[in-house]
Amino acid sequence: MKSFRTFALKTLLATAASLVLTTPALADVNIGVTLSLTGPASGLGIPVGNQFKLWPKTIAGEKINLIVLDDASDPGKGVTNARRFVTDDKVDIVMGGSITVVTAAIAPVSLESRTPQLAIAPVGLPPEQDRWVFRLPQGFEVMAHPIVAHMKKGGVKTVGFLGYTDAYGELWLKEFTRQAEAQGIKVVATERFARTDTSATPQALKLVSANPDAMLVVASGSGAAMPHKAVMERGYKGRVYQTHAAATPDLVRIGGKDVEGSYVVSGPAVIAEQLPDSHPSKKAAVDFVTQYEKAYGAGTRNQFAGHAYDALIALEKALPVALKKAKPGTAEFRAALRDAIEGMGRTIFAHGVMNWTEKDHWGYTNETGVLLKVVGGKFVVEN
Amino acid sequence: MDASIAGILALDGLGNGAVYALLALATVLVFAVTRVIFIPQGEFVAFGALTLALLQSGKVPGTVWFLLALAAAVVVQDLAAGLRQRRPAARLASQALRTLAWPVGVSLLALWAAPRGLPLLAQAALTVALVTPFGPLLYRLAYESLADASVLVLLIVSVGVHFALVGLGLYFFGAEGFRNPSFWDQRFQFGGLTLAGQTVIIFAASIGLIVGLWLFFERSLAGKALRATAVNRLGARLMGISSAAAGRLSFTMAAFIGALSGLLIGPTTTVFYDSGFLIGLKGFVAAVFAGLSSYPLALVGALGVGLLESFGSFWASAFKEVIVFSTILPVLLWRSLRDPHGEEH
Prior knowledge:
Radius of gyration of chain A: 23 Å
Low-confidence stretches of chain B: none
Distance between the termini of chain A: 74 Å
Mean pLDDT of chain A: 88
Shape of chain B: globular
Strand order of the largest sheet of chain B: 1-2
Radius of gyration of chain B: 21 Å
Strand content of chain B: under 5%
Largest sheet of chain B: 2 strands, antiparallel
Largest sheet of chain A: 7 strands, mixed
Shape of chain A: elongated
Structural class of chain B: mainly alpha
Order of helices and strands of chain A: HEHEEHEHEHEHEHEHEHEHEHHHEEEE
Helix content of chain A: 40-55%
Oligomer: heterodimer
Distance between the termini of chain B: 50 Å
Low-confidence stretches of chain A: 19-25
Structural class of chain A: alpha/beta
Number of helices of chain A: 13
Strand content of chain A: 15-25%
C-alpha cells in the first residue's frame, strides 16, 4: 500500500513539475554548449562559438535550443556549466569543452546524468566515461597514418625524430613509432627541444650524423620552423615531415626557403579548395569554409570552427533516429541519441571521414589526413 | 664525437653564452645597486626581438602602446603621491612632463617610422630607444617605493612583474613567434666550421658592451656613484648620491642590455612573447655562479652555461634544462661552504 502511495505521489509531483517547468520546451531539443570564450584558451573557443552562431533553428524538423555558456578556460566553471545544463536546462546533449582540461572535467557529469557529450577537444578518458563521450577532433593515429604511408611509398627505411619535450611530442613519438615499426621503418634517433629554446643546432648535429632517410619534426605553428632550419643548416638532404600543428602559414613565414619541399600533414577542412576531388571530405570542407568566410571574412577559416560544423552533421544524422524512439527531454531520448550517434556509421565530416563504433569514440578513418608539400612557399596537396 | 662536431657545438654554445653573459651582467648590476633579483630581465630580450620583428613587417609594435600605458601609470602614481604631500602644481607638472617626454617622443617617432620601412640598423636603434625606457619606468612603478624592503619582498615583486610582463607581452605581441633577418649574412669557413656573421656580431657586441661597462664603472662619475651605492647604500647617500637615481640608472642599463640582447639573439632563433624567461633564467644561473657580485665570474659562468647547454643537448636533449639548472646546486653548495655568512637583512 505504501509503495502505491509513494508511486502516486511521485507521479503527481512529476506531472506537476513537468507542467510547470518544461511545458514550453517539451518538444524542443535542448543543446548545452560550454566553450572557452574568454581566458587563455579563448583563441580556440571563440571560432567554435562563431560557427555555432551559424547553426540553423531547426534540425530534422525539430526546433533546437542552443544554450552557449562561457567556461573561461576553467575546468571548475565548465563543470558548473555542465551541471546547469543537466539539472536546470534538461539538455539532451552536451557539447564541449573546447579545450582538453574542461572536456575531461565535464565528462563525469555526462556519465552521471546519462547525457551524450560531443567533445571539441581531444581527450583520453576511462572506459565508463568514454561510453557517453564522442570526440570531434582527430587523434594522432589518423594523422600519423598518411606520413607513414608516404614514407613507405618513398622507400624510407630510417627516420630521425625531433620533437617537443611535452605531451604533444610524446604522443606523436609513441603513435608514430608504433605505426612505423609495423611498416618496417625504424626510428634511429630521437631528439627533443622546447619551443622557447635558443638553439637546436646540437640536436640537429646528432640527427644528421645518424643520417636517417627522413626526419619527423614535431612542433606547432611558428615553433616548428626553428628546428627545421637547424636541420637544413647542417646540410641535411633527406625528406623532412611536419605534423598537423605546423600546418599554418607561420611555418613558411619563418622557415622561408629552408622548409621548401618538406611535407606537412593536415586535416582536410582548412585546405578545402585544394583537396583532390577524390577526397571524400571535399564537398563538406568547401561548404564549411564558404559558409564561415562569408560570415566572418576571407582568410578566417580555422580547424576549430570546423568541429562545430561537424557536430551539426552528426546531429542531422542521429536526431531523426533517436526521435523515432523517444521524446526529447527524457532519459530515454538521451540514451537513444547516444546509441544513434554511436551507430550512425560512416559519415562524411568537413574534418574527415567519421566512423564512431562501440569500441572507438575517436572514430576518424585513415582517409582523413592529407599530406601537403611546401612548394614555392605554399601548401600543395601531395598525392 | 669528433673535433668538427665538438667545434660546432662549442661555437653554438659560446654564441648563446655571450648573450647569457650580457644578461648575467645586467642581473648582477641590478642586484648590486638595488638588491632586486630581477627575474623579468629576460622579458626585455623578448620585447627587443619582437619590437624589431614588427617594425620589420611594417607594423606599429605593441611596445609603443605598452610604453605609453606604463608612462601614464607612473605619472598617475607621481601625481597621487605629490598631491598627498601637497607639492606645488608647477613642480608636479614639470615632473610629469619629464616622465612623459621620452616615451611620448619615441612613440611618435615609431608611429611615423613604422610604415616607412627604414633600414635595418635604424629600426634596431629605434627598438633600443623604445625598450630601454621600460627599465626606469618599471623601477619607479614597482620597486622605488619599496627600495628599503627586504630582498625577499623585492624578489616576490619581481615574480609579480615577470608574470605581468609575460601576460601583457602576449596581449601586445600575440602568440606567434618571429625570426629577425640577420644583421650580417656573411659566412666564414674554417675547415669544417662555419662561422655565421651574426655570431661574429654577437661576440663583438658582447665584448664591446663589457668593455664599455668596465670603462663606465672605472672612469665616469655616474659609474662610480653606482659602485658606491652597491658597496654601501647608506654611506653613498651620506655622500650625496641619490639611491633612487642610482636605482633608475641601473634599471635603465638593464633594459638597454636586455633590448640589445634581443636584437642579437633575434636572428638566430624564433622568439616568442614568453621566450625571454628561460633566456633570462640562464643569465641568472650565471649571475648566481658569480655570487651576484662579480662581473668577470658572471662572464665565465655564462659561457659555461652556454657550453653546458649545447653539449647537454647533444648528448641528452630531453634532459637539457635539467642538466643546466642542476649545475646551480653544486655551485650554491660550493659558494655557501666557501663564504659562510648569516642573513644580512
